[in-house]
UniProtKB/TrEMBL annotation, chain A:
<keyword id="KW-1133">Transmembrane helix</keyword>
<feature type="domain" description="ABC3 transporter permease C-terminal">
    <location>
        <begin position="285"/>
        <end position="402"/>
    </location>
</feature>
<protein>
    <submittedName>
        <fullName>ABC transporter permease</fullName>
    </submittedName>
</protein>
<dbReference type="GO" id="GO:0005886">
    <property type="term" value="C:plasma membrane"/>
</dbReference>
<feature type="transmembrane region" description="Helical">
    <location>
        <begin position="279"/>
        <end position="306"/>
    </location>
</feature>
<feature type="domain" description="MacB-like periplasmic core">
    <location>
        <begin position="21"/>
        <end position="235"/>
    </location>
</feature>
<feature type="transmembrane region" description="Helical">
    <location>
        <begin position="373"/>
        <end position="392"/>
    </location>
</feature>
<keyword id="KW-1003">Cell membrane</keyword>
<feature type="transmembrane region" description="Helical">
    <location>
        <begin position="21"/>
        <end position="42"/>
    </location>
</feature>
Automatic annotation (TrEMBL), chain B:
<keyword id="KW-0813">Transport</keyword>
<protein>
    <submittedName>
        <fullName>ABC transporter ATP-binding protein</fullName>
    </submittedName>
</protein>
<feature type="domain" description="ABC transporter">
    <location>
        <begin position="2"/>
        <end position="233"/>
    </location>
</feature>
<dbReference type="GO" id="GO:0005524">
    <property type="term" value="F:ATP binding"/>
</dbReference>
<dbReference type="InterPro" id="IPR017871">
    <property type="entry name" value="ABC_transporter-like_CS"/>
</dbReference>
<keyword id="KW-0067">ATP-binding</keyword>
<keyword id="KW-0547">Nucleotide-binding</keyword>
<comment type="similarity">
    <text>Belongs to the ABC transporter superfamily. Macrolide exporter (TC 3.A.1.122) family.</text>
</comment>
<dbReference type="GO" id="GO:0016887">
    <property type="term" value="F:ATP hydrolysis activity"/>
</dbReference>
């Protein structure tokens, strides 16, 4: 297989039989080209479908509290359920291996002032894990960290639009921002794909807020993300489990809908998955179909090629070519052509997808792209089946008796 | 060099079979130049193909250079062909996309000689048949006589023990035929064993021995006084 001389012999045969090479190469290139484009468009469809979910991590649960709607175990109805730090710790520590990230949230508003500019912004007091749950992307500086929590620092992280509103073009890292009369130090600027509102927020450590406003350990909400390896069904069961545990913890009636609510994206995702699976199936069927037709194409071309070369192969055998070397020659040629042509089809396909870009947005095709890995695997499959398809004619060629091949027509 | 005894060969054609060779006994010593003659269909090519291991006999024994040739698998046969035998065909059978030089070098490729050695040897043999200047030409750019000379050079390139030529001059006019025979005689003078199938008595007379085939048996086997082709060239 790695005999240089043999490859040279094959390169020569390929180079000097341009029509045959072109025909077989063209079939393969076209197959891979179509495969690439279809797969890319399919992925584009998938992307536009997924874009409605990309704001937050998809494995997130929100836990909120309210007032009880029922009397239960000696407690009156309409009792306010208040989450505290210990409840956050409970969530964090009670489900080891299932909870990936967890953060509390305390919501506030504040009037922020810098020099002559001012604006009112939403404030979220959080744990560092919040960054991963919200998929917050840092543009500058850093996010809230553990040290901030521990020391209850007045460090804040502001959204891209807060920076734009108040600071114009000044650099903000290390600057002090006045919010409702208290000076905070800006340690980072973030962006978020969730839209303008998400970028007009200010994050600070939840421990700081608890210290500054009421000196308590109250929390408004707890968010967590569950382990991605969990199936959707398991995730839904997990959210039910948390709800049940918390209801017991706060002595809330199991069927009380308003006191404690665990909201999981998993339920949405379950429906989404059905559609996704449908799209994947279509892509898969199309892909396999294209590959199969590519394989049949190669098989035909190889049969044709061997037939055309019957005489040549007979001559080679008369001159001492063994059947094995004939098979190897035919197969290597087919593999070489398949690989090179497949690669060219891939390049053209990627180029076409690039040209399409987002121009088909109104047809729900967003950023059509293919995973190079998938294409490489597809090419390998094509080469493998090309080998298989080439093997039958190659073996027939090797079996031809030289006299039959050499007989004058 | 060649030793055959009681060789039989039939071709099956549907239900009936055609008995082509009906007990051939025949031997050729090293350095001989033998013409095989006979009417069309008498079995000349069949005999030559069996001698060339391109086809197999039904029964009988065949020794080539004291090696028994029987029941060889394809790979082994290919190896023997490459080592022992050189072929020249009526229709040249050059590979059309290879140059004269590349065609001549091909048997050496199957002998796993390196590239440089192949090119050098091939060039030597091309010079020997007087075609050094045509080395880079494709067969389509050569005349019939030139093609046959390339084919002879190719048959010689692997330095075989026996050269088998099936009507090497069949597609050539008489002048080019003599040129080809001149080369064959020269090679024979150097000691190569050669068998030539031919229809033409003047070509046969340029050999040293004539074997006549008729209806699948040898009816005549006689030495002849060789006529040198060079006098006609
Ligand atoms: N593969 C085959 N299958 C069936 N019959 C065959 C085959 N090869 C040859 N024959 C028959 O065997 C007989 C001898 O053929 P062969 O080619 O040996 O004759 P030849 O003496 O070389 O004739 P020519 O001078 O025309 O070349 C012929 O009748 C031919 O038709
Ligand atoms: Mg014949």
């Amino acid at each position: 297989m790695f005999d240089r001389d043999r490859w040279r012999e094959i390169f020569e045969a390929i180079g000097k039989n341009k029509l045959r090479t072109f025909l077989s190469g063209f079939t393969v290139a076209l197959g891979i080209l179509i495969f690439t484009i279809l797969l890319g468009l399919g992925n584009g469809l998938l992307n536009s479908f997924l874009s409605s979910f990309v704001d937050d991590a998809q494995n997130v649960m929100f836990i909120r509290s309210g007032n009880t709607s029922k009397a239960y175990k000696g407690f009156q109805e309409n009792r306010k359920i208040q989450f505290k730090n210990e409840d956050f710790e409970f969530i964090k520590n009670n489900y080891i291996g299932k909870v990936e990230f967890a953060t509390p949230r305390i919501y506030r508003d504040g009037l922020a002032k810098y020099k002559k500019e001012s604006g009112s912004y939403g404030i979220r007091a959080v744990h560092p894990d919040h960054q991963y749950l919200e998929k917050t992307i840092m543009m500058n500086g850093r996010y809230i960290n553990e040290a901030d929590l521990k020391e209850r620092t007045k460090n804040i992280v502001i959204g891209r639009l807060v920076e734009k509103d108040l600071f114009k073009n000044e650099s903000v890292l290390g600057k002090m921002l006045n919010i409702d009369g208290i000076q905070y130090k800006i340690v980072g600027v973030f962006q978020d794909s969730g839209g303008d509102n998400e970028e007009r927020l200010i994050y600070m450590p939840y421990t700081t807020v608890q210290l500054l406003f009421g000196n308590n350990d109250y929390l408004d909400q707890i968010n967590l993300s569950y382990n991605m390896t969990m199936s959707t069904e398991k995730a839904i069961a997990f959210s039910k489990q948390i709800e049940k545990d918390l209801k017991e913890r706060f002595r809330v009636a199991p069927d009380d809908q308003s006191a404690i609510r665990v909201y999981s994206l998993a339920e949405d995702i379950k429906e989404t998955m059905v559609v996704l699976r449908g799209i994947y199936l279509i892509i898969f069927v199309i892909g396999i179909g294209t590959l199969i037709s590519g394989v049949i194409g190669i098989g035909n071309i190889m049969t044709f090629s061997v037939k055309e070369r019957t005489k040549e192969l007979g001559i080679r055998k008369a001159l001492g070519a063994s059947p094995g070397s004939i098979i190897a020659m035919v197969l290597q040629e087919s593999v070489l052509i398949t690989a090179i042509a497949g690669y060219m089809g891939l390049l053209v396909g990627i180029l076409v997808l690039k040209l399409i870009g987002n121009s088909l947005k109104e047809f729900f095709i967003l950023n059509p792209k293919v995973d190079t890995g998938v294409i490489i695997v597809a090419t390998m499959i094509l080469i493998f089946f090309g080998l298989l398809a080439g093997y039958i004619p190659a073996r027939r060629a090797a079996k031809i008796k030289p006299i039959i091949a050499l007989r004058d027509e | 060099m060649i030793e055959i005894k009681d060789l039989h060969k039939s071709y099956k054609m549907g239900s009936n079979s055609l008995h082509v060779l009906k007990g051939i006994n025949f031997s050729v010593k090293e350095g001989e130049l033998v013409a095989i003659m006979g009417s069309s269909g008498s079995g000349k090519s069949t005999l030559l193909n069996i001698l060339g291991m391109l086809d197999e006999a039904d029964s009988g024994t065949y020794f080539l250079d004291n090696v028994p040739i029987k029941g060889l698998n394809e790979t082994k046969a290919a190896k023997y062909r490459n080592k022992f035998l050189g072929f020249v065909f009526q229709s040249f059978n050059l590979i059309n996309y290879k140059t004269a030089l590349e065609n001549v070098a091909l048997p050496l490729y199957y002998q796993r000689k390196n590239r440089k050695e192949r090119a050098e040897k091939a060039m030597d043999y091309l010079s020997k048949v007087g075609l050094a200047e045509w080395a880079t030409h494709l067969p389509s750019e050569l005349s019939g006589g030139q093609k046959q000379r390339v084919a002879i050079a190719r048959a010689l390139a692997a330095d075989p023990k026996v050269l088998l030529a099936d009507e090497p001059t069949g597609a050539l006019d008489s002048k080019t035929s003599y040129e080809v025979m001149d080369i064959i005689q020269t090679i024979n003078d150097e000691g190569k064993t050669i068998l030539v199938v031919t229809h033409e008595p003047d070509i046969a007379d340029m050999c040293k021995r004539i074997v006549h085939l008729k209806d699948g048996v040898i009816v005549e086997d006689k030495p002849v006084k060789q006529i040198r082709a060079s006098q006609y060239v």
